[in-house]
């Protein structure tokens, strides 16, 4: 059965990529930014970290959820061989291209800015996310295709019944709590190339798939309860910031993370599940923007941080430079040059590059 298109999931993915760009820009204005490989502004804006600390414990898990949902749409039209072929072209090829070409460019900028020896660095950096997704697809495909088969009908019916109430929704948070308690990450919000990041991504990817594959009840429940979910998440955030200086016990961090995500999905399902021309465009642009954004972020930081401007103005300028640089590169280069398109996860279509993006693009993260 071919699944019905979900515009709200498209929108959530686009918005999440935009928030990721702003989040990464904020790191350059923190006094510890240079220690994790960012070009750091001389005048920090530590107050920016207050809203970012609300975002950072659910921004990446949300994208893993959405990527798992994307695979659910993808396999409704494909068999196992078709899925692996399509995921290889749309995830693995951009992963290696970005690691070989895009990442070294922004590393060069960092090295030059800090007068370090210029050297070629082979490292995925922000593209680690794509590597994880490809592994998840390979490992979890047997489960996914089982649920798609006739043998999986009863399981999906049970899941659909389970999600008819918030109790079923809360049951999905238990694996995340167990993961956090077992791994005991030094920092819950550090996902890149960590054991915690791998397993929380694995769980989010799987649950995202289950949400789409199980049926309609999960979305009805999310739509009905999203305000309560968001209020509870915000309450846990306030407790974390005011009483625990941003870090509580792992089980509370895992619970807060998923409450935010569930609330966002419910909010999106109620208000964003409708088509628009803007969505058609940005759904296709989001993936190339994700791949390119660190290059333009570093270039903007390289050019702007030394000007001695007001730090708030510098923040606005770097964010604007990054957004505009990514958009111009996508609009006038990536989407118009046929051989570049697959390197950025886009399909090659010589007749019309403006065709509506397919729902399966959600799985690119």
Helix content: 55-70%
Q: How is the main sheet built?
A: none
Provide the succession of SSEs: HHHHHHHHHHHHH
Let me know the number of strands.
0
C-alpha Rg (nearest Å): 20 Å
Which percent band covers the strand fraction? Answer: under 5%
Average pLDDT over all residues: 92
Can you offer a commentary on this structure?
With about 375 residues, the chain is an all-alpha fold. Mean pLDDT is about 90; it is low at about 350-365. The two termini are about 25 Å apart. The protein has one domain. Helices cover about 70% and strands about 0% of the residues. It has helices at about 5-25, 50-55, 60-75, 80-115, 130-150, 155-160, 165-170, 175-185, 195-215, 215-245, 250-270, 275-305, 310-335.
Describe the protein's topology.
Blueprint: H1 7-27, H2 49-55, H3 59-75, H4 80-113, H5 128-148, H6 153-162, H7 166-171, H8 174-183, H9 195-214, H10 217-244, H11 250-271, H12 277-304, H13 311-334
